[in-house]
Every structure is written in structure tokens, then in C-alpha cells.
Input
Amino acid sequence: MLDKEGFDLWAGGYDRAVGLSDEDGSYPFAGYRQVLGRIYDAVRRLEGKRVLDLGCGTGTLAGKLYRDGYAVTAVDFSGEMLRRAAEKMPSARLVQADFSDGLPEELDGERFDAIVCTYAIHHLTDEQKLRLLTSLQKRLTPGGAVFIGDVAFPTRRELLRCREQSGEAWDDEELYLVAEELLPRLPGAAFEPVSHCAGILTLPALEKGGDA
Output
């Protein structure tokens, strides 16, 4: 699993590496463009223009929303990734922070119409995922939603099948989302498979909100 310095070094070739894996339909990025495209469309269907992108990387998804006039706040722990994201959205609010233990203090008390996180949550344990996702629901405005797109599987069996098929390419250090294990602990959550190794988890705003 790459650390901050590793992602800094990878930033220049990240988009190309992801694109090649997506094009040939291989683990880990098969379905990448579809995941981002479906989340983009889902955000566009919501009311409101305030978007938080966690683990924004080079700003591929956030940049499209930015060009559409959304007020984007983007968080990443890699300074080089953020530098490249800034080239796509120069007036966006960019925050360098590690969200594994929650949102950065700069965002205390703020709410968003949509929160997106693509190909970043697999760095968290299941317990960290649950804490983060539960806290994110409390940061939504009424009618808002959280969208998590990542290497993800409906069942543990399908994860193990992908692991076997991927052979040496499989990364044992990454902690992929398994819907059947997380959804029962996340009221209102829904999961949509996109490819054999990708899917989208959606969480609605809490009916009665919560402390931000």
C-alpha cells in the first residue's frame, strides 16, 4: 500500500495507469470510468452545488463538477496529487489531509449536498470505513447523498474469486469493500456493482440530521 510519498511519486502517471487497467478490463481499475461517470450523473441529479471530494487524487471527477459550476472542496493527503488537481480547478478549495481518522478540522461544522470518494476508501479498515461513512452522513444537507466508488465486491466469495483470477497482481495490503458485510451496519445504504471488481456504495442523508 502506497504512503503519501508513494502517491506523490505516482501522481504524474496515475491517470495513465488507471486508464490502461480500465481499458483492458483488468483488476484493479476495470470499470473506473463507469464508476466516475455514474457518480457524476448521480451528483448532477441532486439539488445543491456544494460537493466534498475525499481522496480527490488528480481531480478527475471533482474537475468535471467544478467545470459545471459546483463549489468543490477537495481533500487528499498527497501534495503532488493536489497540485495536479489545482490545475483542473484553480479556484476550488483544496485541503491536504489524511481522512482515515475523520474529516480535517478545517471542515468542522460544514455540510455538503454531495460527498464523493473514489478509489480511496480501500486504505481504511472496515471499522474505519464504518466510522467515516457514519460521520459523512451527518455532514449532508437534507436530500444529499454520499457516493463511494472503489474496488468493491457484493460478496466475500466474489472478492476471493477476483483474487484468484488476478494472481500476482492482487494487492493483499488493500482492504476492499464487501457490500454484504458493511451494508447491514449502514442504514439506508445501497450497493451497485459496476464491473467484476468495482462498485458504488450510496448513503442517503439522515432523516433527522446530526451533530456535524
Observations:
- Confidence is low (pLDDT under 50) at residues 1-13.
- The first strand starts at residue 50 and ends at 54.
- DSSP finds seven helices and nine strands in the chain.
- Helices lie at 4-23, 32-45, 60-67, 79-88, 126-137, 156-166, 179-182.
